[in-house]
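Sample log: ATP-binding cassette domain-containing protein.
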Amino acid sequence: MSLLEAKRLEKHYGGHVVLEGLDFTVDAGEFVTLVGASGCGKTTFLKMLLGTERISSGEFILDGRPIPDEPGPDRGVVFQKYSVFPHLTVLGNVMIAEELEQSRLLGKCFGAARRRAADKARERIAQVGLDQALAKYPHELSGGMQQRLAIAQALMMRPRILLLDEPFGALDPGIRQDMHELITRLWQEQQLTIFMITHDLKEAFALGTRLWVFDKLRHDPQAPEAFGATITYDLPIGRHAPPEDLPAHLAARGIETLTQETLI
Protein backbone atom coordinates (compact mmCIF):
# COMPACT_ATOMS: atom_id res chain seq x y z
CA MET A 1 0.00 0.00 0.00
CA SER A 2 1.23 3.50 -0.84
CA LEU A 3 2.20 5.84 1.97
CA LEU A 4 0.26 8.78 0.56
CA GLU A 5 -2.60 8.99 -1.91
CA ALA A 6 -4.73 11.81 -3.31
CA LYS A 7 -7.92 11.49 -5.34
CA ARG A 8 -9.38 14.62 -6.99
CA LEU A 9 -7.88 16.68 -4.19
CA GLU A 10 -8.81 20.38 -4.18
CA LYS A 11 -8.28 23.49 -2.07
CA HIS A 12 -10.49 26.59 -2.33
CA TYR A 13 -10.67 29.84 -0.39
CA GLY A 14 -14.23 30.89 -1.05
CA GLY A 15 -14.43 31.43 -4.80
CA HIS A 16 -10.66 31.33 -5.20
CA VAL A 17 -9.58 27.90 -6.44
CA VAL A 18 -5.94 27.31 -5.50
CA LEU A 19 -5.51 23.60 -6.29
CA GLU A 20 -7.75 21.26 -8.26
CA GLY A 21 -7.77 17.72 -9.55
CA LEU A 22 -4.68 16.40 -7.77
CA ASP A 23 -4.31 12.64 -8.26
CA PHE A 24 -1.18 10.77 -7.16
CA THR A 25 0.30 8.03 -5.01
CA VAL A 26 3.64 8.29 -3.20
CA ASP A 27 5.54 5.36 -1.73
CA ALA A 28 7.61 5.50 1.46
CA GLY A 29 11.16 6.64 0.84
CA GLU A 30 10.51 8.82 -2.21
CA PHE A 31 12.05 12.30 -2.50
CA VAL A 32 9.56 14.49 -4.36
CA THR A 33 10.67 17.92 -5.54
CA LEU A 34 7.96 20.47 -6.35
CA VAL A 35 8.46 23.27 -8.88
CA GLY A 36 6.19 25.85 -10.42
CA ALA A 37 5.64 29.59 -10.62
CA SER A 38 5.21 31.56 -7.40
CA GLY A 39 1.63 31.53 -6.17
CA CYS A 40 0.63 28.28 -7.91
CA GLY A 41 -0.23 26.45 -4.67
CA LYS A 42 2.92 24.52 -3.80
CA THR A 43 3.11 25.85 -0.23
CA THR A 44 -0.63 25.38 0.18
CA PHE A 45 -0.16 21.74 -0.76
CA LEU A 46 2.56 21.31 1.89
CA LYS A 47 0.29 22.92 4.49
CA MET A 48 -2.48 20.46 3.59
CA LEU A 49 -0.02 17.61 4.04
CA LEU A 50 1.20 19.10 7.32
CA GLY A 51 -2.37 19.45 8.57
CA THR A 52 -2.51 23.24 8.98
CA GLU A 53 -4.83 23.66 5.98
CA ARG A 54 -7.95 21.57 5.49
CA ILE A 55 -8.79 20.06 2.12
CA SER A 56 -11.84 21.46 0.35
CA SER A 57 -12.84 18.33 -1.55
CA GLY A 58 -11.51 14.98 -2.67
CA GLU A 59 -9.51 12.45 -0.68
CA PHE A 60 -6.11 12.82 0.95
CA ILE A 61 -4.98 9.54 2.49
CA LEU A 62 -1.98 8.81 4.69
CA ASP A 63 -1.37 5.16 5.59
CA GLY A 64 -4.89 4.28 4.50
CA ARG A 65 -6.58 6.97 6.63
CA PRO A 66 -7.56 10.61 5.97
CA ILE A 67 -4.78 13.01 6.85
CA PRO A 68 -5.48 14.58 10.27
CA ASP A 69 -6.59 18.22 10.36
CA GLU A 70 -3.66 19.12 12.59
CA PRO A 71 0.11 18.65 12.57
CA GLY A 72 1.51 15.47 14.10
CA PRO A 73 4.89 14.02 15.05
CA ASP A 74 4.89 11.90 11.89
CA ARG A 75 5.32 15.05 9.74
CA GLY A 76 8.20 17.49 10.23
CA VAL A 77 8.62 20.79 8.39
CA VAL A 78 11.44 23.22 7.58
CA PHE A 79 10.79 26.64 6.03
CA GLN A 80 13.08 29.02 4.15
CA LYS A 81 12.99 31.49 7.03
CA TYR A 82 14.75 30.00 10.01
CA SER A 83 11.93 28.78 12.25
CA VAL A 84 13.87 28.73 15.51
CA PHE A 85 13.23 30.32 18.91
CA PRO A 86 15.66 33.23 19.43
CA HIS A 87 15.50 33.01 23.25
CA LEU A 88 16.52 29.34 23.36
CA THR A 89 19.94 27.77 22.87
CA VAL A 90 20.60 25.18 20.18
CA LEU A 91 19.91 22.46 22.74
CA GLY A 92 16.77 24.19 24.00
CA ASN A 93 15.44 24.70 20.49
CA VAL A 94 15.67 21.01 19.70
CA MET A 95 14.44 19.85 23.12
CA ILE A 96 11.28 21.96 22.91
CA ALA A 97 9.41 19.50 20.68
CA GLU A 98 9.88 16.68 23.19
CA GLU A 99 9.04 18.95 26.11
CA LEU A 100 5.81 20.12 24.48
CA GLU A 101 4.92 16.50 23.74
CA GLN A 102 5.50 15.55 27.38
CA SER A 103 3.86 18.64 28.91
CA ARG A 104 1.58 20.61 26.60
CA LEU A 105 0.56 22.97 29.43
CA LEU A 106 3.98 23.97 30.76
CA GLY A 107 6.11 23.22 27.72
CA LYS A 108 8.80 21.91 30.00
CA CYS A 109 9.68 18.58 31.58
CA PHE A 110 11.75 17.82 34.65
CA GLY A 111 13.99 15.22 36.23
CA ALA A 112 14.54 11.99 34.33
CA ALA A 113 12.16 13.04 31.54
CA ARG A 114 14.20 16.18 30.93
CA ARG A 115 17.44 14.25 30.85
CA ARG A 116 15.99 11.84 28.28
CA ALA A 117 14.80 14.78 26.17
CA ALA A 118 18.25 16.37 26.35
CA ASP A 119 19.97 13.14 25.33
CA LYS A 120 17.59 12.72 22.41
CA ALA A 121 18.13 16.33 21.34
CA ARG A 122 21.92 15.98 21.50
CA GLU A 123 21.66 12.98 19.17
CA ARG A 124 19.65 15.00 16.61
CA ILE A 125 22.03 17.95 16.94
CA ALA A 126 25.02 15.71 16.30
CA GLN A 127 23.30 14.31 13.20
CA VAL A 128 23.20 17.79 11.65
CA GLY A 129 26.75 18.68 12.72
CA LEU A 130 25.99 21.22 15.45
CA ASP A 131 27.26 19.28 18.46
CA GLN A 132 29.92 21.95 19.11
CA ALA A 133 27.25 24.67 19.35
CA LEU A 134 24.89 23.29 22.01
CA ALA A 135 24.99 26.42 24.21
CA LYS A 136 24.85 28.99 21.41
CA TYR A 137 21.79 31.10 20.60
CA PRO A 138 20.43 31.47 17.04
CA HIS A 139 21.83 34.98 16.61
CA GLU A 140 25.30 33.52 17.18
CA LEU A 141 24.90 31.08 14.28
CA SER A 142 25.44 31.55 10.56
CA GLY A 143 22.52 31.13 8.14
CA GLY A 144 23.59 27.60 7.28
CA MET A 145 23.93 26.68 10.94
CA GLN A 146 20.47 28.09 11.70
CA GLN A 147 19.00 25.95 8.94
CA ARG A 148 20.80 22.91 10.32
CA LEU A 149 19.17 23.74 13.65
CA ALA A 150 15.74 23.96 12.00
CA ILE A 151 16.30 20.53 10.43
CA ALA A 152 17.29 19.08 13.81
CA GLN A 153 14.08 20.51 15.26
CA ALA A 154 12.01 18.92 12.50
CA LEU A 155 13.66 15.52 13.05
CA MET A 156 13.38 15.53 16.85
CA MET A 157 10.18 13.46 16.90
CA ARG A 158 11.46 11.06 14.22
CA PRO A 159 8.90 11.97 11.52
CA ARG A 160 8.26 9.65 8.62
CA ILE A 161 7.62 12.59 6.30
CA LEU A 162 9.78 15.70 6.04
CA LEU A 163 8.37 18.80 4.34
CA LEU A 164 10.85 21.37 3.04
CA ASP A 165 9.58 24.74 1.79
CA GLU A 166 12.47 26.34 -0.13
CA PRO A 167 14.81 25.49 2.77
CA PHE A 168 18.02 26.50 1.03
CA GLY A 169 16.84 29.47 -1.03
CA ALA A 170 18.48 32.09 1.22
CA LEU A 171 21.87 30.35 1.45
CA ASP A 172 25.06 31.02 -0.48
CA PRO A 173 25.93 28.42 -3.18
CA GLY A 174 28.74 26.78 -1.19
CA ILE A 175 26.59 26.44 1.91
CA ARG A 176 23.70 25.12 -0.21
CA GLN A 177 25.92 22.32 -1.48
CA ASP A 178 26.77 21.37 2.11
CA MET A 179 23.05 21.36 2.95
CA HIS A 180 22.33 19.18 -0.08
CA GLU A 181 24.81 16.62 1.21
CA LEU A 182 23.30 16.83 4.69
CA ILE A 183 19.69 16.35 3.60
CA THR A 184 20.70 13.48 1.30
CA ARG A 185 22.46 11.70 4.16
CA LEU A 186 19.55 12.22 6.56
CA TRP A 187 17.04 11.05 3.91
CA GLN A 188 18.99 7.84 3.43
CA GLU A 189 19.90 7.15 7.06
CA GLN A 190 16.47 7.86 8.51
CA GLN A 191 14.47 6.42 5.59
CA LEU A 192 12.46 9.60 5.25
CA THR A 193 9.86 10.47 2.64
CA ILE A 194 10.57 14.05 1.57
CA PHE A 195 8.55 16.71 -0.24
CA MET A 196 10.64 19.76 -1.11
CA ILE A 197 9.60 22.99 -2.82
CA THR A 198 12.36 24.66 -4.80
CA HIS A 199 12.68 27.39 -7.41
CA ASP A 200 15.96 25.93 -8.63
CA LEU A 201 15.57 23.31 -11.35
CA LYS A 202 19.11 22.02 -10.92
CA GLU A 203 18.45 21.52 -7.21
CA ALA A 204 15.19 19.74 -8.00
CA PHE A 205 16.96 17.28 -10.32
CA ALA A 206 19.97 16.77 -8.06
CA LEU A 207 18.01 15.96 -4.90
CA GLY A 208 14.73 14.42 -5.99
CA THR A 209 13.77 10.98 -7.18
CA ARG A 210 10.58 12.45 -8.61
CA LEU A 211 9.69 15.90 -9.97
CA TRP A 212 6.23 17.47 -9.78
CA VAL A 213 5.41 20.51 -11.90
CA PHE A 214 2.50 22.60 -10.59
CA ASP A 215 0.62 24.75 -13.13
CA LYS A 216 -2.85 25.68 -14.29
CA LEU A 217 -4.37 23.72 -17.15
CA ARG A 218 -7.37 26.03 -17.44
CA HIS A 219 -7.39 29.83 -17.57
CA ASP A 220 -10.21 32.36 -17.73
CA PRO A 221 -9.07 35.99 -18.16
CA GLN A 222 -12.46 37.17 -16.92
CA ALA A 223 -12.25 35.05 -13.77
CA PRO A 224 -8.57 34.41 -12.97
CA GLU A 225 -9.37 32.74 -9.63
CA ALA A 226 -11.95 30.30 -11.03
CA PHE A 227 -9.40 27.57 -11.79
CA GLY A 228 -6.55 26.20 -9.73
CA ALA A 229 -3.23 24.56 -10.38
CA THR A 230 -2.67 20.84 -10.58
CA ILE A 231 0.29 18.52 -11.07
CA THR A 232 0.82 18.92 -14.79
CA TYR A 233 3.93 16.70 -14.98
CA ASP A 234 5.07 13.89 -12.69
CA LEU A 235 8.55 12.79 -13.76
CA PRO A 236 10.87 10.12 -12.35
CA ILE A 237 14.27 11.80 -12.27
CA GLY A 238 16.48 9.45 -10.26
CA ARG A 239 18.62 11.99 -8.35
CA HIS A 240 21.03 13.04 -11.02
CA ALA A 241 22.29 16.33 -12.36
CA PRO A 242 20.00 17.76 -15.05
CA PRO A 243 21.17 17.67 -18.63
CA GLU A 244 23.35 20.60 -19.68
CA ASP A 245 20.73 21.64 -22.21
CA LEU A 246 17.90 21.51 -19.70
CA PRO A 247 15.24 23.44 -21.70
CA ALA A 248 15.71 21.14 -24.70
CA HIS A 249 15.56 18.07 -22.46
CA LEU A 250 12.30 19.26 -20.92
CA ALA A 251 10.88 20.17 -24.30
CA ALA A 252 11.56 16.62 -25.45
CA ARG A 253 9.27 15.50 -22.65
CA GLY A 254 6.59 17.96 -23.68
CA ILE A 255 7.46 20.64 -21.11
CA GLU A 256 8.28 23.48 -23.46
CA THR A 257 7.42 26.30 -21.05
CA LEU A 258 9.26 25.14 -17.93
CA THR A 259 12.47 27.14 -17.62
CA GLN A 260 14.27 28.61 -14.64
CA GLU A 261 12.64 31.99 -15.29
CA THR A 262 9.12 30.59 -15.05
CA LEU A 263 9.74 29.32 -11.52
CA ILE A 264 10.57 32.70 -10.01
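Observation: Residues 17 and 212 are 19 Å apart (CA to CA).
Observation: The chain has two domains: 28-55+68-74+160-264, 86-158.
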